[in-house]
Amino acid sequence: MIGVWALVAFVAVIILWNAVVKRNIGEAMILGFLAVCAFALIGGTEDGGSAWTAIEEAVIDAMQEEVTFAGLAFVFMSYLLAATPVLDRLIDLLNSVLGRLRGGSVYTATVAGGIFGAIAHVGAAITAAVGSVTVPWMKRAGVKPELAATVAAGGAGMGVSFPFSSTMFILVGGLTAQGIMQSGEIVKPLAIAGLWCLGYRMVLAWFLIRRNGIAPIAAEDRLPLRRSLRSGWTSLLLFVPILVPLLLTRGPLAEALGTYSGVSDTMKKPVQLADGTTLPAQPYAMPDVISLITWIPVLMIALVLFLGRKHLPRTATGWWSTIGKAAPSFGVIGITIVAAFCASNLLADLGLASQLETVLSGLDAPGWLMAIAIGIIIVAIAIPLTASATMAAVGPVAVTALVGAGIPAPVAAAAVLIFASTEGASPPSGAPIYVAAGIAQVDPVKTFMPLLKYYCLPILAIGVLIAVGALPV
């Protein structure tokens, strides 16, 4: 069980160094990773290979993660936006339409997260696309930066809690191969489960708005719609960097491009699940070759450079100064993301997935207790791993355990996916946390407790209530 103990040590070291010693999260994540390295050097890897090689590969893979690039790109984008009036004009326009509503920016962020999640299904991309507009808007409306980042990151899980994410297909593929359920049986329960999660987030938005005294934008601070539209219509182009990658990866245009380019004719490698089940090779799709999380910040930066060209530096010295101002955030967020992925990769090499599978297989309890136990285990796994990796590792085993406790397979599968959807709100390793923190220009550690309190634990509870039938799906 060395992988399990390494996970416990990873989380404990981070909490100790950050919360008790009061040092920054970057240092804490590095020490957490070093703790996992110590377990690897003492206990060895699952396949018996060299621990030093596993550590080296974990670091190299982490440096190549697209989320690492995206987190830093959004930090730079936020500085560019702050240096130009482009986003200010868009916020003026949004306030002209919705600013009269109390907490209109928070409601918009929540609903937009649900809509984008039902389309894109990538947690960090949801936070990036929605947060790049709504986080600055929330801050302008008087929302504290850490709360704005919390709301943006808290919506990331809706990509998993609605059909048809890759995470869903990984889980359903394993269950179908074992004859536990048919692939189509999950769609309705998961869609309803996703609506329960969205409904909770709307209630939470209402609560946060009133608890934090978020008032409507004063009438004297709201421009008339005609005036804000006349002066800021070009700011609406900020949605283009979101829409273009989306259209190229989803829908009829994406299908046509995939067929024309030959992408759809190329097959992926078969997927090997932790329980030994092998999913057949699937054709590539446009989301596999055009990454939302990479291209949204790239296109956004390019557009801001164009729209705000009159307000940006024109000399090398000026640009050096602008980039220098972003350097502290680059350091903390970059180191934190890399350390999180390093630890995740090394924990996988230590056999965390198979060890937790053994724990799940040995559970024998009433349905309600089984749902709580499996929910906690999956949420714990989703701290260092993505939802897709979690489902590949223990998803089918978790559903089988719930079915054995008398819970219908489609309901069990929906509940397990809801548990896994907490990955975006699970500190300290959730990538959406650092994307949101970068946009909000806030220390990510300030979002940890709010995310646990407002999103992670309540979504866990919703999954349990779905499993036991208290919330019908």
TrEMBL record:
InterPro entries: DctM (IPR010656), TRAP_DctM (IPR004681). It is a multi-pass membrane protein. GO terms for cellular component: plasma membrane. GO terms for molecular function: transmembrane transporter activity. It is found in: Cell inner membrane. The keyword Transmembrane helix applies. Residues 23-466 form the TRAP C4-dicarboxylate transport system permease DctM subunit domain. The chain crosses the membrane at residues 28-46, 67-87, 107-135, 147-170, 190-209, 229-248, 289-308, 329-348, 368-387, 399-420, 452-471. Keywords: Cell inner membrane, Cell membrane, Membrane, Transmembrane, Transmembrane helix. This is C4-dicarboxylate ABC transporter permease.
